[in-house]
Specification:
This protein has 5 helices and 2 strands. A two-stranded antiparallel sheet has the order 1-2. Helix 4 packs across helix 5. It is globular.
Length: 74
């Protein structure tokens, strides 16, 4: 029973930290690509080519970049 409560608290804390994460315009994230993710801005331009004018958290941007870098080439 105590373990369920701890799991529920951890899930709530994760949601709260996600909701509190600041959202940045895509252009600003691309400008700071090397500092935030260690990749060149061109990589982010490729990862976000279909997302013009979007706003993301840094965590969402990192996830999108990792998916882009791990994508198989046809």
């Amino acid at each position: 029973m105590a373990q369920k409560k701890q799991t529920a608290k951890a899930a709530k804390a994760a949601k709260a930290s996600e909701a509190a994460a600041p959202v940045y315009p895509l252009g600003e994230i691309i400008q700071q690509a090397e500092a935030l993710m260690g990749v060149k801005p061109e990589v982010l331009a490729g990862a976000f080519h279909s997302m013009s004018g979007a706003s993301l958290t840094v965590q969402e941007a990192r996830k999108q970049v990792q998916q882009f870098l791990n994508r198989k080439v046809k």
